[in-house]
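Researcher: Next entry: Two-component system response regulator (Pontibacterium sinense).
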Amino acid sequence: MKEEKVILVVDDEPINIVVLSDLLKTQYRVLVATNGEQALLRAHSDPKPDLILLDIMMPGMSGLEVCQALKEDPETQEIPIIFVSAMSEEMDETHGLATGAIDYITKPISPAIVSARVKNHLELQAARKKLKQQNELLEEKVQQRTQEVQVTRDISIMALASLAETRDNETGAHILRTQRYVKALALELRKNQKYKDQLSDETIDLLFKSAPLHDIGKVGIPDSILLKPGKLTDEEFTVMKTHAELGSDALLRAEEGSDDQDSSFLRYAREIAQCHHEKWDGSGYPAGLTGEAIPLSGRLMAVADVYDALISKRVYKPAFDHDKASGILKEGRGNHFDPDVIDAYIMIEDQFRQIATDFKD
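Model: Predicted structure:
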């Protein structure tokens, strides 16, 4: 059964209400109001009117005031309003339309014109509602698809990171710790006005998600070097250092195949892989970058990675306690590490200690 449309007729003259009601009642359900206050109550009735025919000159609230009130109310602002008025000057019509009405009919009315205008605007309103519903459905599907892509991305990251783990002596807990150090540093550094715009919630999430790929390039390092149970020779260390560029090159190729190169997590993953061994004073590798020429993502990862290496046991060193590791980081302020990042670390070093405890090997 076709849904019956509801028309609200608002006029202080009984004869006008009778004329309009008789004209419309054969096709629509008609509600009536004789003043502005009644009109506002009827507009919020159940069911709400699908369209309102509104007189302008009424005692108390004028039609213009009623229209403005309806358009300011989220519950009624979508209801189309047609002014039906004896005020026939062009400026009257212009003023009426400026308040939010969709049409203006002058009295005395032409029944054929009123019927046609009502029919056309109801059809337009129905089309707008249908389009809105379709857009909402489409947006929901896009959100679902986006969520699926993000889940796939996150799984891919962890799979790639796990691949690197299988060839290294480091554990999966190292990945869990370092990505949390990076997030904690970024959240604290964002309090510095200098970095507020660089570290949005989205960016920090991307840094957190891409941090596990910082050592992905180690899959290209020979086992004889990567798994050597002792200190590396200078030549071996030169080969080991190439893991930064190997990881960066692999992620760059993936990034070039991405449709979203401006905000893709691959860009942050590439920066982190390439630059987490750069040093503030230019003595790092692979490019010897200095200061802010090092991407912020790499400067954050450098602190996270070194701290975790210091508190972890290696074949060439015992695990340091938090205080000793923290002291080394602070000594590196301004030479190894970005001073601002170290200052952020100092504010949250207890968080680092807790993360290390929560995700210990």
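Model: Note for the record: The mean pLDDT is 89.
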